[in-house]
Design brief:
Elements (H helix, E strand, L loop, with lengths): L1 H19 L6 E11 L3 E9 L3 E11 L8 E7 L3 E8 L6 E10 L1
Antiparallel strand pairs: 1-6, 2-5, 3-6, 4-5
């Protein structure tokens, strides 16, 4: 009886371990960068196709937003055709923003 219980426990543990593994893991597709230095406005970068990839914001770096009116933003948006990475500076006298995104194949 102990052998059956040990075997059943081992089989259950193996099954649970295998279920936890991703069946078709996603694979890296590309890295993207957008920057904006000292000037108000937006910098857009069209990234990979939105139908076959998933993209996310991986890094932001904001420098010299030292007044209340200076704003810096990074955005990743999914469009109908491609993902877009955007670096935005609001009212800026000396601010900088650097944005990075990573895309994976679905």
């Amino acid at each position: 009886m102990k052998v059956k219980t040990a075997f059943a426990s081992s089989a259950l543990a193996l099954a649970l371990s295998l279920i936890a593994l991703p069946a078709a893991a996603v694979s890296p597709h590309s890295n993207w960068f957008a920057t904006r230095y000292n000037t108000v406005g937006s910098t857009f970068v069209n990234m990979s196709p939105s139908a076959s990839t998933f993209c996310y914001l991986s890094r932001t770096a904001v420098v010299d937003t030292d007044t209340a009116s200076e704003k810096a933003t990074c955005r990743v948006t999914k469009g109908g055709v491609v993902w877009t990475l955007e670096a935005v500076l609001g009212a800026s006298s000396d601010a900088d923003v650097e944005c990075s995104a990573i895309c994976y194949n679905n």
